[in-house]
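F-box domain-containing protein
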Amino acid sequence: MNDAERNASRGLVLLHRHTATARTPPLPDLPEELIMEILLRLLARTLVFLRSVCTSWRNLISSPDFTCNHLYRSCLRDPSLTPPRIAYYTHSSDYRDLYGVIESFSVQSILDNPSEPAKVDYFSGQRYHRMVGSCHGLLCFFYDDGGQNTHGILWNPCTGFTFQSPQISGQATLCGFGYDHLSDSYKLFGIIRKKVPLPSGLEFSSRIYTFGPTSSWRKIDDIPLGLLGVPTDDLFMPDNMEGVFFGSNRTCTINWRSVNHVVVYFDLGKEIYGHFFLPYTDLDNYF
């Protein structure tokens, strides 16, 4: 047993005493900061069971902030605790089956036992799922009820924890997900398409959601298409509808490749748009 496991065992003993049964007198309430510190030292598979202790623990362990802190500490103690994972979307061959399943498995499990089937974690539901991106081991996706309303979902495949955004009317077209280092939060960006009365028929608006217990969808400025030479009455259609997240200690952006070697980005911290040109190469003559 290594130091991390020994510390986790000591924490479990203390927590067990804190949640004593009716036959044993409980200890005085532990400070919330101490409870959080103990929970952060435990393994992810242990936290799955501890969510059932009480509502406050479930809310704490399921929160995005706790997930981020737990992942960070786990990586510092032992990088092997958080191996890379592959997530993918599967759909039934039956055209009558409208709902797909998001699956995830550990790359390390294949490397360790290549002859054994990998253990797959599933996220399934009764609505259409659309994967947006991943960051720090968390998977983000949209699901909707056929185009009328949309939710954003944050899922931790290792623990099964999920966090759901409030419902928003419409369907996401262009979108992206990433981590904002300035506010220490996860954000979901989407251009929401909504049906409106004729003559327009459709309405597009840019929205952003910061994952948190009291957050809501906020309307922000639309992408300035004029800077890109795109007519303002055209919808911005990049090569990748799900933006690619780039994060560093200086900036965190979601990026889409557009026409004419232009990359459009959205700064998650400042919540502003920008763009830059990709360099031309000899290969460009072949496409």
